[in-house]
Amino acid sequence: MARVSVEYKDHIAHITLTRGDKMNALDDAMIKAILSAGQEVAASDARAVVLSGEGKSFCAGLDMASFATLAQKDPSEWLMSRSHEDANEMQEVALIWRRVPVPVICAIQGVAYGGGLQIALGADIRIAHPESKLAVMEMKWGLIPDMGGMALLPKLVRSDVLRLLTYTARPIGAQQAADWGLVTKLSDDPLTEALALAENIANQSPSAIRAAKRLIDVAEAQSRADVLLAESAEQVELIGKPDQMEVITAQMQGRTPEFK
């Protein structure tokens, strides 16, 4: 059965986890389908991405059958391999959304636990239903977050919050998650709000949006000198180019810009 659907409309890619009857729990087929969807969208001309899960929950994490299967294998064989640049396959399920060159907005309802939370953390922006719950769940099974969580969490939450979430595996409500920085904002209809935000982004200069995502990645990881140089280099490629000129013309004419 299909695990993920990808639809395009008005320059927006909508990626949906489609294992709703299992709370979109991750099995091998879904992991591979998520990676395939991310790679497809990264190569497309989409200007924004909405990531969501069908049914009652966004994603409940790794399903127990898959966990049992993995437990029978030598962990060093599938964990230590760098199959996707700096990541293994499981880590890439979350990190691929950072590699997608346009903004990714994740809509969360129900639960985002364990691997499901780490997938959501890979998005640029997370919009959650007020009744949703999130958890760094791995300690419940005697494990640690290993799907990119430790590359993403320290940029979002304070050290003490990171430690509390990791040590206890305790689910937290959406409001607490927002207060701590795991969630960008709350909405009674996160998917509709995510699509509206994606539409807003898709109406901005496509080249400037992609440049902004690249620049933010540099700003979060590189030295001040590298960031300042990257600012200048990205701006050189925008000033006076067709997308920027269309923005200026549309502003002066009081209309919505139209990008080729």
TrEMBL record:
Keywords in alphabetical order: Fatty acid metabolism, Isomerase, Lipid metabolism
Record family assignment: Belongs to the enoyl-CoA hydratase/isomerase family.
Record CDD domains: crotonase-like (cd06558)
Pathway field: Lipid metabolism; fatty acid beta-oxidation
Matching SUPFAM superfamilies: ClpP/crotonase (SSF52096)
Keyword Isomerase: yes
Protein name listed in UniProt: Crotonase/enoyl-CoA hydratase family protein
One Pfam family of this chain: ECH_1
